[in-house]
Design brief:
The protein is an alpha+beta fold. Among the domains are: 395-488; 498-697, Alpha-Beta Plaits (2-Layer Sandwich). Helix content is 73%, strand content 7%. It is built from 26 helices and 8 strands. The chain has helices at 2-23, 25-44, 48-63, 71-81, 85-102, 105-121, 125-142, 145-161, 165-181, 185-201, 205-219, 225-241, 245-260, 265-281, 285-302, 305-321, 325-342, 345-361, 365-428, 433-488, 498-518, 538-545, 547-564, 591-604, 634-654, 676-681; strands at 527-535, 570-575, 578-586, 607-610, 613-615, 619-625, 660-667, 685-690. The strands form 2 sheets. Strands 2-3-1-6-7-8 form a 6-stranded mixed beta sheet, sandwiched between helices. A hairpin with a 2-residue loop joins β2 (570-575) and β3. α7 (125-142) runs antiparallel to α8 (145-161), α10 (185-201) packs antiparallel against α11 (205-219) and α18 packs antiparallel against α19 (365-428).
Length: 706
């Protein structure tokens, strides 16, 4: 009997001991660490679905523990590195619930920061900003400067990815100051690289390069291959933008090699996108497109809309360059839809620019005009948004000064109350009157001294804030001028683009018509002349010598046009191999002479296409006065003029190329020898000039029955 009781008691004690062990926090932490190690193995093996399932089970299990585990953040970082952002959000929500229940505010703020990072990777920017603001409130309350800096860094990245580049600089620079004060090398380097991204987006490439170099120098003596790889890739992208293609390939390849030694699959995919673009630019198109498609597959599977749109943009640009306009339009349309859904104005402008070029190349000018109208509205909205942001920043600075004055007045009121109380006490007792009077006098003198010191400090702060605001306004003004220059110039030839023409042309037409009606000038040079110039057989150049040779011909052709025409004439890169020239303060009688001078100069010019090779080209020209007949409405005047010069250009090509055809003037009286051009555009009659044998020898694009 005693033996049986002993056995039962021993068994009970063993079960109780086992329960105490498994229920202890130490045992739970050890078990959680083991589960995280299993999930890490699944992620390394790219068994993502199994890893996601185990992560969700971990979150549910950890949530049931009495004491929240520290493993939440370790697991969340692993999932983010492997681009499993949906799973990381589930784990972090469990962490948020557990730490909120325990009242651990620092961990709550950290969970909110990680949630903001995951939502930002999925392009859910509104949700990300909400999490980050909540995290910042807690960090400020707890006075945790380093955590505030990490949140500011993430907030700056959110603004940058939405295209709000000027607004992004404020939190990024605030974060950089804190990181440097705390000797946080990796965070400082990351912050510098993101500031470099801002200046790259604004096409301030020298400043961008400076920040990237500083970022790489800061991290180069560490073992942080992930950050070094990211920065080298960004340097390569900037070099590619500056047309330093071989140097860019070396930088990007080096960055990708560093990243491949890490587990950051998202950064690896971004590097492949940049490498794909570089390979296409250097002629290795099959390998480049293969890398872009591989990156597209990964980005779509992981839900990273931003990466998907980066690939779409690269593919659309490539197909536009290859003159596969339907494919370029398809990718641009998909990217435009996503950019609109996310409210990214700069993203919309990039995809609309591709649609505009493709539509012009396909000859769909009505659609091109519609797209141009949308682009103009978006540019105005972008500038308006940036001006509003600058105004809000200024108002915030003024509000800070105002609050400082309010605090000063409250302090003065407080001192008056204290002085009154002291005065009442002096009345109640004569014994302390003398001593209290002396003390009061000393207090008032000290108070006046402190007040004067405070006033000096406040004046200095106001002056510094004013200087900072002036510097910021100057910086923004330079950025706006840079953006304006980029938007009005063709990047290859340096000539004006059609946006500039459409901003200048209405007033020029109005001026010309007023001068004609009033006969203002005595020289007769009050006409606007329009010439549409096309390089003959340009596609053969690309096919025989490559697109780099074609680009050199376009650059040389632009230089020839600058020699032929005046500085006051508007020389426009219209699209592809077509150029449009609008001559101001000219006479219509000069049209044949201008056209022949342009044709002859091009035909006699030797074009350098690289590798010590040269070729000669010819051009065909269609011209007209602008407008060809009396039209009051600008849109109708410009549309009619462009249709006439385009029709004349096409006739010049059909009639043998290397020549010109155009309308010098139109008449209000009908004659018996009307041309096909008169019939097509319903002119009663017109005076036509051509470099071919005679008007009868012109082969018009379409014969119109009389």
């Amino acid at each position: 009997m005693r033996t049986a009781l002993t056995l039962v008691l021993t068994l009970f004690l063993n079960v109780a001991a086992l329960y105490l062990v498994t229920a202890s926090p130490a045992y739970a932490e050890k078990s959680n660490a083991s589960e995280i190690k299993v999930i890490q193995g699944l992620l390394d093996a790219k068994q993502y679905e199994d890893a996601d399932r185990q992560a969700l089970l971990f979150a549910e299990s950890a949530l049931q523990q009495e004491t929240p585990t520290s493993g939440f953040f370790t697991l969340a970082e692993l999932l983010q590195t492997s681009s499993r952002f949906e799973s990381s959000i589930a784990v972090l929500n469990a962490a948020l619930e557990a730490y909120t229940r325990e009242g651990k505010l620092s961990e709550v703020a950290r969970a909110l920061l990680y949630l903001g990072q995951s939502e930002r990777q999925l392009a859910n920017y509104v949700t990300a900003q909400d999490y980050l603001r909540r995290a910042m409130s807690i960090a400020q309350m707890k006075k945790q400067k380093l955590l505030q800096a990490k949140i500011s860094l993430e907030m700056g990245i959110v603004f940058k990815e939405q295209g709000e580049v000027e607004q992004a600089l404020v939190p990024l620079k605030e974060a950089l100051g804190i990181f440097r004060n705390n000797d946080s090398i990796a965070d400082s380097s990351a912050c510098l690289s993101h500031i470099g991204d801002i200046y790259a987006l604004l096409d301030q490439n020298t400043q961008a390069l400076s920040y990237y170099n500083d970022a790489f120098s800061a991290i180069s003596n560490t073992a942080n291959k992930q950050l070094m790889g990211i920065i080298k890739t960004k340097l390569g992208a900037l070099q590619l933008k500056n047309n330093e293609k071989e140097k860019a390939l070396r930088s990007i390849t080096g960055g990708l090699d560093l990243l491949l030694a890490t587990n950051d699959v998202g950064a690896i995919s971004e590097a492949k996108i940049v490498l794909g673009r570089a390979l296409i630019e250097t002629g290795n198109e099959p390998r480049g497109i293969s890398l872009l498609q591989e990156a597209m597959s990964f980005a779509a599977e992981s839900g990273q809309t931003r990466l998907v749109n980066d690939v779409r943009l690269a593919l659309a640009q490539n197909y536009l360059r290859e003159q596969k306009f339907d494919l370029a339009l398809a990718f641009a349309s998909e990217g435009l839809t996503d950019a609109r859904e996310k409210g990214n104005l700069r993203g919309q402008l990039r995809f609309l620019a591709i649609q505009l070029s493709a539509s012009v190349s396909l000859g769909d000018f009505q659609k091109a005009l519609d797209i141009q109208s949308v682009i103009q509205k978006l540019r105005e909205a972008l500038l308006s948004s940036e001006n509003q942001n600058a105004l809000k920043g200024l108002q915030a600075e003024i509000e800070l000064v105002r609050q400082s004055k309010e605090l000063e007045r409250l302090e003065e009121s407080k001192q008056l109350v204290i002085a009154q109380a002291e005065k009442e006490k002096l009345k109640n007792t004569l014994f302390w009157s003398a001593s209290l009077a002396v003390l009061l006098m000393m207090f008032l003198l000290w108070s006046r001294f402190k007040e004067r010191q405070q006033t000096i400090i406040l004046r200095r702060e106001v002056r510094l804030q004013t200087e900072a605001l002036q510097d910021k306004n100057s910086e923004l003004e330079r950025a706006y001028k840079t953006l304006e220059h980029v938007s009005l110039r063709d990047p290859l030839t340096g000539l004006y683009n059609r946006y500039y023409l459409e901003s200048q042309l209405p007033e020029e037409i109005k001026r010309s018509q007023i001068e004609i009606s009033k006969n203002v000038t005595t020289s007769g040079k009050h006409d606007l002349l329009c010439l549409l110039i096309d390089i003959d057989h340009f596609k053969r150049i690309n096919d025989d010598f490559g697109h780099l040779a074609g680009d050199k011909v376009l650059e040389g052709f632009a230089a020839v046009l600058k020699e032929v025409f005046r500085n006051t004439d508007l020389i426009i890169r219209w699209g592809g191999e077509e150029f449009l020239v609008v001559c101001r303060h000219s006479s219509r009688e000069e049209l044949p002479e201008l056209a022949e001078r342009c044709r002859e100069t091009v035909a006699s010019h030797v074009f350098d296409i690289g590798d010590s090779k040269t070729i000669k080209v010819t051009c065909s020209i269609g011209f007209s006065i602008l407008p060809p007949n009396e039209i009051v409405n600008f849109d109708n005047a410009w549309r009619r003029t462009f249709e006439v010069v385009d029709y004349a250009l096409y006739a010049a090509k059909l009639s043998g190329r290397n020549g010109w055809i155009g309308v010098i003037e139109t008449y209000n009286t009908t004659t018996s020898n009307r041309t096909s051009l008169d019939k097509k555009f319903d002119f009663p009659s017109s005076r036509i000039a051509t470099s071919f044998n005679n008007i009868a020898s012109i082969h018009w694009p379409e014969e119109v029955a009389g």
